[in-house]
Structures are given as structure tokens and as C-alpha cells.
């Protein structure tokens, strides 16, 4: 019998809702044919696909990152503003296509306003310059009688866009990046960009590039955090996991925990003795991604991937004191929870845990005690292959996030049962929290771990809502095999 014990006084910290952010990039059918389709009868007068907007709106994203991704390292923002017929069609070197620029800054801001989400722009520190980055801040946030602020006004936006989050480049240490850099060169350009961007608007929040496990040892972080201390508010951590072996796949979030540990350690070392505030961690790209390559990345997700996404969210909750901003990469068609055709859309399996957590987890993360049987595996991303496995990890079948609301009147237990075949009977002890007998249950499951959703079978994996009538200070619950269960308890 497994055990979960919760003590509402054992608090880890406050979960920042900004961890439920999203990301859209000029890549494949994410923008064109995804969120934006000027010729579609499903679109509004601005070209925004209404069905996609509705599915995204339901996720209540607190922020949305744009325009890349790898794309941004060759992007010049001025190509994407002003009259559409005058915008240049340009060769695009990140994904090897031609960019029409018909969707740009102002369209993105309008999209964010429709979603009621905070825009998060990433600047080009590949082929771009600090001056160009500062000009973009001026275009978006400037209120003076100055060139770029006036350009925005002339384009029909008299009020500033007030963009709060700005990424200082994307994955600049990656060899695949346009104009990739070593840590020293990156730090130099990022400091100068940060200075100029803040001279335009001192209130903005800046996200520096963290190291990538594929190419750089933690020395990247040591140098970048050291040199950008005081010039960035966050350092980014990008993590994609995935493996076609089920148990390796659902252990992916263990890898995320290890990377967060490395980040915290390197930030602590690099910041020792400095007066500048400690940068927080922005997991501003995270997801399961291992099946698709090339320039489309139309990953089809199964139930196991949904369990992995829930595991990522549990990790973020448990690390809420250091991970305070995150972006699911990406949102539509490209490694995404929403998948479109010209005729409609369906929700991929990973949509469901994201929505259930967003809707039903609370702000205070609790340090739950979990005693569950476990398995051993080496965590390895499908692409890295043999030789790049982690050491053997012990992975508990049950993975739990316990969260409490501010008045301590509502408690949510998000429980993943990673066991492929067996339900797990569990004793749950809630200490001083005496719940009402009736708990609400949101269960995400499907007939097999490899079952997917599709246009013809959109609900193979979905969320089932039910009631559980035997909640008490101590009670038993059986978590079904390969499931995510959110138990929502109200204080009696
Ligand atoms: O999200 C897809 C790509 O993954 C992004 O463009 C890049 O930043 C990362 O490598």
C-alpha cells in the first residue's frame, strides 16, 4: 500500500502563475495555418483562427513567448510591422523556409490582448544588434515623441504595447543557432543589449540564455550568470525530454529536476558575494519532443506523453521558489497541445493535464511525503542515444504535487500513477486538514499508454470529472494504472 502524507504547515513556497505560460514561433504551421490563417472561413477579420483562439483561451495562459525559438536569431522585427503588402518575404535560415512577415509584432500584441495574456518577446542576439533590440523596446513601450514610438503610432497603435518580458536571445550557445556564440561573446552582447533596452524602459524584465545540456557544461552558466549579474532577472532553462520506451519517457521530469539542481548550484556559485538580485529560472521552453524532426515538428502525443507533461508541472510546483516563469513549447501544431487542419482542430493528449493543473491547482506548494514502489531506469532523450544516459534513477510510480489555497480552505492533490499495468491503492493522510466527505476528481486516462487523440477520435485521452464520497482526514484511494488524478478537497 502506498502512502501520501500532507501537512499544510510544511510549505515549499508560492507557485508563480507565470509558470503556465505558452510559446509560439514562426515554425511550420504554428503561426501560419495555426493561430493565423487569413483565408480561412474559421478566422475572424484579423485572420485569427477563432477555434484556436478559443482552445488557447481556455488554458488561461498568463504569458505568451514569441517569435522564437531558433527563428528569432535571424529575425529583424521591422520586417514584420507596417502595411502587410510592403513587408518583405525573406529567406529564413532557422527552419529553411521563406517568411512572409504577414504576422508580426502588432498582430502578436493583438493576439495577446484577445487571449488576455502578457506578451513576452525574445530579441535577436544572433544576427541582430543591441541597438535593434532597444529599438524594438521603444517601438513597443515608448511614449515619447521619438522615431520608433512614432512608428508604432503611425501603424495604428497610439498607446504603448507595454511588453514586460524580453528574452535576451534564444539558445545562443547552441551550434544550430544562427550566429551562435561562446559564453563570453554572448555575455558581452547580452549586457550591452540589456543596458540599452533598460535605458528605453527600466521596468522591463529580462531573461538571459542559460546553458544547453547538448553542448555546454555548466561553465556556460557560471560565466553568463557572473557577467550578466544585475543585467537579467531570469536565466532560461530549455528542456525537452522523450523516449519511445514508456518507462523512460515518463521519467523525463526526473531529468528536469536534475537540471534545475544544476542551475541552482551554478547560480549560487556565480552570485556568491554579489549584491545584484539572484536571477530566477525561466523554463521558457519545455515539453515532450522526440518523434519528429525537420521543419514541421508535428508531434502526435499519446497518453504517456500526457503523464510526462503532468510530471513536469509537478517538478515546477516543487521548485516554485526558483522556477518562476515557464513556457510550454509550443502551443499550436508544432510540438503542441492543439492540432489544426483547415477544417477544425483537436486537442492532443497533453492539453488535458495542462488545463486541469491550470484550473485546479492552488498557489501554495506543499512538501508532500510520498511512499510508493518505484522502478529504475536511465533517463535518456531519444535523440541523444546510447552513451548519453543519466545514471540509474529510482523513479517512484506515484508522483505527487500538493497545493493549498491562500485561506487554507482548499487542497488539491495531483497524483500521477506511472505504473503501466497496475492501479495503486494509497493511504492518504491530511493531518490537520479535515476535508468535506465529497471531493471532486479530475482524471486523465485512456485505454493504453500509447493511445493518441486524432480528428476522428478526439477523446481517446480526455478528462473525466467525478465525485469521490469518502474523503476524510485519512482515507484510501486507488489511482488507476497510467493515469493522472487531481483530487480537489474542501475543508469541512
Ligand atoms: O521549440 C522548438 C525549438 O526548440 C526552438 O526553436 C528552439 O529554441 C529549441 O531548440
UniProtKB/TrEMBL annotation:
It comes from the Bacteria. Its EC number is 3.2.1.55. GO terms for biological process: L-arabinose metabolic process; polysaccharide catabolic process. GO terms for molecular function: alpha-L-arabinofuranosidase activity. Residues 284-483 form the Alpha-L-arabinofuranosidase C-terminal domain. It catalyses: Hydrolysis of terminal non-reducing alpha-L-arabinofuranoside residues in alpha-L-arabinosides. SMART domains: Alpha-L-AF_C. SUPFAM superfamilies: (Trans)glycosidases (SSF51445), Glycosyl hydrolase domain (SSF51011). The keyword Metal-binding does not apply. Keywords: Carbohydrate metabolism, Glycosidase, Hydrolase. The keyword Hydrolase applies. Belongs to the glycosyl hydrolase 51 family. Homohexamer; trimer of dimers. This is non-reducing end alpha-L-arabinofuranosidase. The lineage of its organism: Bacteria, Pseudomonadati, Candidatus Hydrogenedentota, Candidatus Abyssobacteria.
Amino acid at each position: 500500500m502506498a502512502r501520501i502524507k500532507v501537512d499544510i504547515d510544511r510549505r515549499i513556497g508560492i507557485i508563480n502563475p507565470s509558470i503556465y505560460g505558452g510559446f509560439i514561433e514562426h515554425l511550420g504551421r504554428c503561426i501560419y495555418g495555426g493561430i493565423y490563417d487569413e483565408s480561412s472561413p474559421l478566422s475572424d477579420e484579423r485572420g485569427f483562427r477563432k477555434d484556436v483562439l478559443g482552445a488557447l483561451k481556455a488554458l488561461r495562459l498568463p504569458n505568451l513567448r514569441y517569435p522564437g525559438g531558433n527563428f528569432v536569431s535571424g529575425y529583424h522585427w521591422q520586417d514584420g510591422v507596417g502595411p502587410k503588402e510592403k513587408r518583405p518575404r525573406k529567406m529564413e535560415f532557422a527552419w529553411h523556409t521563406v517568411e512572409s512577415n504577414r504576422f508580426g509584432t502588432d498582430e502578436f500584441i493583438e493576439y495577446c490582448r484577445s487571449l488576455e495574456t502578457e506578451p513576452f518577446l525574445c530579441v535577436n542576439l544572433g544576427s541582430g544588434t543591441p541597438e535593434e533590440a532597444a529599438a524594438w523596446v521603444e517601438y513597443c513601450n515608448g511614449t515619447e515623441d521619438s522615431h520608433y514610438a512614432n512608428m508604432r503610432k503611425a501603424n495604428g497603435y497610439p498607446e504603448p504595447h507595454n511588453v514586460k518580458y524580453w528574452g535576451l536571445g534564444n539558445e545562443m550557445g547552441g551550434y544550430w543557432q544562427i550566429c551562435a556564440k561562446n559564453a563570453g561573446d554572448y555575455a558581452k552582447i547580452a549586457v550591452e543589449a540589456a543596458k540599452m533596452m533598460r535605458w528605453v524602459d527600466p521596468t522591463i524584465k529580462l531573461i538571459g540564455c542559460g546553458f544547453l545540456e547538448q553542448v555546454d557544461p555548466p561553465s556556460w552558466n557560471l560565466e553568463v550568470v557572473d557577467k550578466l549579474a544585475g543585467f537579467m532577472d531570469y536565466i532560461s532553462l530549455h528542456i525537452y525530454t522523450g523516449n519511445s520506451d514508456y518507462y523512460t519517457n515518463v521519467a523525463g521530469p526526473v531529468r528536469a529536476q536534475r537540471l534545475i539542481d544544476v542551475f541552482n548550484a551554478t547560480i549560487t556559485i556565480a552570485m556568491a558575494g554579489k549584491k545584484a538580485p539572484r536571477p530566477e529560472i525561466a523554463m521558457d521552453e519545455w515539453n515532450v519532443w522526440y518523434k519528429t524532426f525537420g521543419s514541421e515538428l508535428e508531434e502526435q502525443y499519446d497518453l504517456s506523453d500526457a503523464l510526462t507533461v503532468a510530471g513536469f508541472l509537478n517538478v515546477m510546483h516543487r521548485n516554485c521558489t526558483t522556477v518562476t516563469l515557464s513556457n510550454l513549447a509550443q502551443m499550436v501544431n508544432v510540438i503542441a497541445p492543439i492540432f489544426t487542419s483547415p477544417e477544425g482542430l483537436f486537442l492532443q493528449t497533453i492539453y488535458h493535464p495542462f488545463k486541469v493543473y491550470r484550473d485546479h491547482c492552488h498557489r501554495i506548494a506543499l512538501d508532500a511525503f510520498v511512499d510508493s514502489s518505484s522502478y529504475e531506469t536511465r533517463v535518456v532523450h531519444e535523440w541523444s542515444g546510447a552513451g548519453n544516459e543519466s545514471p540509474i534513477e529510482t523513479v517512484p510510480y506515484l508522483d505527487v504535487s500538493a497545493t493549498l489555497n491562500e485561506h487554507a480552505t482548499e487542497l488539491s492533490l495531483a497524483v500521477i500513477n506511472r505504473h503501466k499495468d497496475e492501479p495503486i491503492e494509497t493511504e492518504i493522510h491530511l493531518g490537520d486538514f479535515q476535508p468535506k466527505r465529497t471531493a471532486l476528481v479530475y482524471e486523465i486516462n485512456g485505454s493504453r499508454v500509447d493511445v493518441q487523440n486524432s480528428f476522428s477520435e478526439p477523446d481517446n485521452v480526455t478528462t473525466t470529472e467525478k465525485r469521490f464520497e469518502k474523503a476524510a482526514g485519512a482515507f484510501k484511494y486507488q489511482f488507476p494504472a497510467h493515469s493522472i488524478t487531481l483530487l480537489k478537497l474542501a475543508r469541512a
